[in-house]
Design a protein that fits this description.
Blueprint lengths: L2 H11 L1 E5 L3 E7 L3 H8 L12 E7 L5 E9 L4 E7 L2 H10 L7 E4 L4 E8 L2 H9 L1 H4 L6 E5 L7 E6 L6 E8 L3 H9 L5 E3 L2 H11 L33 H9 L5 E9 L9 E4 L2 E11 L5 E9 L8 E6 L2 E10 L2
Parallel strand pairs: 1-11
Antiparallel strand pairs: 1-7, 2-5, 2-6, 3-4, 4-5, 7-10, 8-9, 9-10, 12-15, 12-17, 13-14, 13-16, 14-15, 16-17
Length: 330
């Protein structure tokens, strides 16, 4: 069995640990930080208390996606996890709207790192190290935990979008990451180190959209099925009028779906999705499942075609491939 197949099986049977330092990390401080974020993003932010968190979206004035950001309110700052390579664009976007507000944005991407723990037994591993209460906190709500083997070192632990079973992010100062990694890998439930390729397969299987693929200015939050990151009652924010109108008048014309392909190589993102010879959408992500003769994928299709079990075709450089809509993303 290949190493990739072993990693994939470990996620489904136990848990995997992956380096998520590709994510951007911003610290937002100042008395007006939450109020400004509330006016810039799609979710209700201004009333977050220390120990609470939320997923939210930065959108353009036309309601198109700039980035999905996970916010974690701490006593001294709000930690924002951005998409890969998005810390500076998000920081610049916030600063462009900062006029008289007391808001300071610091890019911590180099000073801190993030580990991701995912899989069927991920909650058990977190509970064994940091306690059951830490493992069962609400989604995105942060808690500080002690880093085993690193005296006085602490990490920010948050439940995040699950892959396979559960999902956690642990963010710590870079010098403390080796001790944190080692303690997680030594957990009795059998945590295994895994790479980015395994994480990508699990992400696509779970239907979780990613920046640069499903999260771009070509799409809006409703199409990406990110309704959990949208408040319909909070009032004005950048892009609010368009996003509200799309919902009120049922104008969402395409939706993100999970796809299954039998065998072969993964088609390239951007491949056209067709049904009965007619273009119905675009493939955005695809990956071969290691150790199994199948391909998983994500793509946007017309809303009337977003039905589980519907057979479609992928028109790629390798020819026409048969695919089945497995169900909605997320």
């Amino acid at each position: 069995m290949s190493a990739a197949a072993e990693e994939y099986r470990a996620a489904h049977r136990a848990a995997i640990l992956v380096d998520r330092s590709d994510l951007g990390r911003l610290a937002l401080r100042g008395r007006d930080a939450l109020d400004l974020l509330h006016r810039l993003t799609t979710n209700g932010i201004k009333d977050l208390r220390p120990g609470q968190g939320a997923a939210t979206l930065f959108t353009t004035p036309k309601g198109r996606i700039l980035d999905l950001v996970l916010l974690h309110r701490l006593e001294e700052e709000t930690l924002a996890l951005t998409g890969p390579g998005r810390s500076q664009p998000v920081a610049s976007w916030i600063e462009s709207f900062t006029i008289r507000e007391e808001v300071r944005v610091e890019d911590l991407s180099a000073a801190r790192g993030t580990l991701g723990l995912f899989g069927a037994q991920a909650a058990r591993a977190v509970s064994g190290l940091f306690g059951e209460e830490a493992a069962r906190r609400p989604l995105h709500d942060p808690v500080r935990v002690e880093v085993p083997g690193a005296q006085g070192a602490r990490a920010v632990l948050c439940r995040t979008y699950p892959l396979v079973g559960e999902g956690y992010h642990l963010t710590a100062e870079v010098p403390d990451l080796p001790a944190l990694r080692q303690s997680l890998l030594e957990e009795p439930c059998g945590v295994r180190a895994a790479g980015a390729d395994c994480l990508e397969v699990l992400r696509i299987e779970a239907g979780l959209p990613a920046h640069g693929r499903e999260l771009t200015e070509d799409y809006n939050p409703w199409e990406a099925r990110l309704q959990d990151a949208i408040s319909l009652t909070k009032g004005c924010y950048v892009g609010q009028e368009v996003i509200a109108r799309l919902n009120t008048y049922k104008k969402v014309s395409k939706l993100l779906v999970r796809l299954q392909l039998a065998g072969g190589r993964a088609p390239a993102p951007g491949s056209v999705l067709e049904r009965q010879g007619e273009a119905i959408g675009t493939l955005t992500s695809a990956a071969e499942v290691p150790g199994e003769d199948r391909v998983v994928a994500l793509g946007y299709v017309r809303d009337e075609d977003a039905q589980a079990g519907r057979e479609i075709e992928v028109a790629s450089g390798a020819g026409r491939l048969r695919a089945t809509i497995a169900g909605p993303a997320r």
